[in-house]
């Protein structure tokens, strides 16, 4: 892990470099899913685009469940994914701006999500329900851990 020599530049961030790669897997177009919209109805294609649109800004892995991953991004949503189950487990709504930071609790039961507008929401990872929302200064909270 690469940590800057100058503590002023560090600010608690983690900087990854080539030595942090555990396993690199290259993908081949042959194994990627087809995106042939002609085979699907227009409403199916539209629904699918609405489900997961926008740029991906943050990813977090559960510390207790190796198959549970959370993603957030420019579509103002958080998705909880179960790896190997083919689709997301929960789509979590409530942010009104891009989701920029995610963190699981140490027991994996809760997920904190932070949006660019400063709103932090706490979610139950088993049910996908919103436990609470914490409003702070837009500039006061950059990351959740």
Automatic annotation (TrEMBL):
Any Pfam family the entry gives: WD40
PANTHER family xref list: ANGIO-ASSOCIATED MIGRATORY CELL PROTEIN, MITOCHONDRIAL DIVISION PROTEIN 1-RELATED
WD repeat residues: 92-133
Keyword entries, A-Z: Repeat, WD repeat
Acidic residues composition bias: residue spans: 26-37
Protein name: Uncharacterized protein
Gene3D superfamilies assigned to the protein according to its UniProt record, in alphabetical order: YVTN repeat-like/Quinoprotein amine dehydrogenase (2.130.10.10)
Positions of region (Disordered): 26-49
Residue ranges of coiled coil: none
